[in-house]
Amino acid sequence: MRLDKFLAESSVGNRKVVREYIKSGLVKVNGEILLEPAWEINEKCDVVEYLDKQIIHKGKVYYMFHKPAGYITAKKDLINKTIFDLFHKDEMNGVFHVGRLDKDTEGLLLLTNDGEFEHHLMCPNKHVEKTYFFGALGNLSEENKRKLEQGVYINKGEILTKPAKIEVDKQGVYGELKEEIPIDILSNITSNYYNQPIVAGYLTISEGRKHQVKRMLKAVGCYVIYLKRVSIGNLQLDNSLEKGKYRELTKLEVEKLMKKQVI
After folding, report:
1. Locate the RNA-binding S4 domain: which residues (predicted)?
2. pLDDT in tens, 32-49
């Protein structure tokens, strides 16, 4: 195994950071300083030290995280709270988020130290589907649902979005549906919207453009007031996982995510 890979998988830092540690002479293998990140080591028997502290190979890690609204998807920020404020710092060295969710968006977010895993899920050519539950002001006619399914223009100069899947769960006037729609959506609605048309449902996309779900729905006359990602590929958000909490993915879940998606 490469030395930089060993350190990255041991939560010392990401590959870019640990390469600098190595080149700066901060890493020893069997008592000797090595300056080459690509140096091959035996992770089972070689003794690796960083700042004179022995490093235990942790291996690849995969986390399912239930992101709450109000946190940005980033390692650090000078103004906003980040998702990593909700993790134990020592566990997150070398771990990064797979894709991102907007500050006001909730739901399923994956974290890992495995670059191949991230590439498989985020590469546009892989067509991995992501499903979002949304609540929006407005309504969706059959014509507008067809537009979403076939692709819409979400900004001047951008190409048509890829075909999507849309499933309407509830639709009508807010005053009539307020007892039937999720409380998380209600918290974003004031009494001024009592007679406002509202629609709730699921939108599945296979791209990752900025604010894509919000912009797609806006293109057909709907203003999103609540958004939650509920699945990535064949992985569903664990309903028992509270907001702000995380758990490791099972071996089977990782294997299923890494399988080729059928479109």
Report:
1. 1-60
2. 999 999 999 998 899 999
Any idea which architecture 130-232 has in CATH? 2-Layer Sandwich (3.30)
Instruction: Tell me the C-alpha distance between 232 and 215, whole Å.
Output: 20
Written as one letter, the residue type at 37 is P
- d(CA 9, CA 114) in angstroms, rounded, equals 8
The token duo for 178 is 């307020």
pLDDT, tens only, 159-171: 999 999 999 999 9
> What value does the mean pLDDT take over residues 175-187?
72
Position 260, amino acid? K
Identify the burial level of 89 via C-beta atoms within 10 angstroms of its C-beta, where 0-12 means exposed, 13-18 middle and 19 or more buried.
Answer: exposed
DSSP conformational letter for 250: P
* Strand 62-67 versus strand 106-112 pairing type: antiparallel
**DSSP calls for 10-62:** TTS--HHHHHHHHHTT-EEETTEE---TT-B--TTT--EEETTEE-------E
Which residues on adjacent β-strands are paired with residue 248?
63
pLDDT for position 240: 96
Report, as residue numbers or ranges, the catalytic residues: 102
Q: If you ran DSSP here, which 8-state letter would residue 9 be given?
A: T
263: confidence class by pLDDT, cuts 50, 70, 90:
very low
- pTM, 2 dp: 0.83
Within 8 A by CB and 6+ apart from 135, the residues are 181, 182, 184, 185, 188, 198, 199, 200, 224, 225, 226, 227
Backbone angles phi, psi at 58, to 5 degrees: -85, -30
**Does CATH number 3.30.930.10 belong to domain 62-125+235-258?**
no
* Domains in the chain: boundaries: 3-54, 62-125+235-258, 130-232
